[in-house]
Design brief:
The protein has seven helices and five strands; from the N terminus they run H-E-H-E-H-E-H-E-H-E-H-H. It is an alpha/beta fold. Strands 2-1-3-4-5 form a five-stranded parallel β-sheet, sandwiched between helices.
Length: 179
């Protein structure tokens, strides 16, 4: 049994990212997108990739490649130069499904690539400056605290959230009742 889980809807987020990129590129002849994902061993990132592929196909965007950055900043930094050496001339837009976009932002800024529409994911301390500089065009911002409050309220409403049992589980004690 589990307590509960709360997450963003990766299919909607990926669809919004594709739609934003489409609108940025709709007057362009070429609409080639480079997708960076978090760890594809994660069902969430695999689902986000699949939803993005479908949205791209629906909107007439060409998905150049999916690059798994493994939700690891050091690994991500190590593959950026090679990735862009291969795809820079073909890339018209970028989407990243992970909140680990800082290495990509630094790379794009250092290379002067602030003319490529780029949809980031999440928010972090430097995101405003990257948006002001034109490195990031848009971001999908999830409100984790609000997501959890809504989910907890839903579970309480239907009687599946019992504060006493949650506390007992967290403390490693026996649960007094199962639902």
């Amino acid at each position: 049994s589990c307590l509960f889980t709360s997450k963003h809807n990766e299919k909607i987020a990926s669809g919004l990212a594709a739609e934003f990129l489409y609108n940025c590129l709709k007057k362009s002849k070429r609409k080639s997108i480079l997708l960076f994902t978090g760890d594809l061993k994660s069902a969430l990132h695999a689902s986000a990739r699949d939803a993005f592929k479908i949205s791209c196909a629906t909107l007439g965007l060409d998905l150049l490649s999916t690059v798994d950055m493994k939700d690891n900043e050091e690994y991500f930094e190590s593959i950026l130069a090679e990735t862009f050496a291969h795809y820079t001339d073909q890339t018209d837009g970028i989407y990243i499904t992970s909140g680990f976009s800082a290495p990509l932002c630094r790379f794009l800024e250092a290379g002067g690539y602030n003319n490529i529409p780029f949809v980031a994911f999440d928010t972090y301390e430097d995101i405003k400056s990257y948006m002001k500089k034109g490195i990031i065009s848009a971001t999908i911002a999830q409100n984790v605290e609000n997501q959890m409050k809504i989910e907890r309220a839903n579970w309480e409403r239907i009687g599946l959230f019992d504060t006493e049992n949650v506390t007992r589980r967290i403390d490693g004690k026996e649960v007094t009742k199962e639902v």
